[in-house]
Amino acid sequence: MRESIVQIYLLLFRIFYRIFCLLPLRPVTLFWVTYGDNVKPINDALLTEFPKEKRYLVYDKKFVKNPEAWSAEYALPYRRLRFIRLAYLLATSKHLFIDNYIGEYSVAPIRQGTKRIQLWHAAGTLKKFGLTSSRSLMVPKHVLRRFKRVYQRYGDFIVPGEACAKQFMAPHDLHRTVFKTLGVPRTDYWFNEQHQTVKKQLSDIYVKPKRRILLYAPTYREYNGMEGQTVRQLEQLTDQGWTILVKLHPTVRSMFTHQKAHVHFVTDEYSINDYLLITDVLVTDYSSIPFESCLLGVPTVLYTPDIDTYRQIPGIIDSYPDPLPVTCTDQFEIMLNWINSDVSLQESRMAMEQFKTIWYTEQPGQATRRIVDHYYRKVR
């Protein structure tokens, strides 16, 4: 959308938002999500524990494929043409949960008596984003100011721990005080019986005798990546007892077909956290996945044949791959030898298990409970 149109849209949104702020607040929780998987556990907890709490959903239909599963009283696919309805929901809902950048926040100051909560879709970062990304260096100053206004109006920012809070402060130009180290809701089910059914379903499909599972999960790129080449390189591992699962980023779709035995391009029917339940080795690159998979102690390697390009767009953090205790290489042979070394895999497993004690302040598995207690039980 051209900048002039954006400014007109935001002007109209601001006008209606201010009008609707004259109306009384309603006991409504609004979930305004892009991906939804880190927010839905909150929705589900409210559904069972506070059935009188009205829950409304605004969602991106590209990524939220089953909005009916939220059982919300009202579900609205996000479209800018619905700005009047969106402004009304934002202005009159008492609680609001988001998981991404919401441009409308730039013209919608936090109303007194409301609570906004940012449940970001990543538990850490290896890439530069927000104000630290290369894209932010190229936008006009007034656009940069708009970004900052959005960040300042996120409200509380939920993170897994102190180290993540420090990571996220600079990209959002936020003080430490706005970050709440309550955990990552979408990982909770790894620690209760709920995951056993999903694990069995995936095991029945992919786990075979005398074969191990390698999950290749590359991150999003703003250019044509090397995913196809990497998959073809990984093919040789199928002759060494490995089954390859390829989980592309939600914004990416495979542009090539593949039919080799023991190589599977998995669908969005299951989430990345589901597939991690049966994963013996994770291969990724600049993704935030290891900040969560460490909870399962999954051995991890970062394979980065395009690292020079990615350093430019969007950029990676200066300490990369730190803080993750992982092997990083742009040489396939090095990665291949690492994968086939049981010693290396065991060392990585132990390092990831240690890392989770650093990255997660609170005991994993109870993030949803802590968040619901903090924002709902305290006010009742």
TrEMBL record:
The keyword Membrane applies. Its main location: membrane. It is a peripheral membrane protein. Keywords: Cell membrane, Membrane, Teichoic acid biosynthesis, Transferase. One of its GO terms (molecular function) is CDP-glycerol glycerophosphotransferase activity. One of its GO terms (biological process) is teichoic acid biosynthetic process. One of its GO terms (cellular component) is plasma membrane. It holds the Pfam family Glyphos_transf. Belongs to the CDP-glycerol glycerophosphotransferase family. This is CDP-glycerol:poly(Glycerophosphate) glycerophosphotransferase.
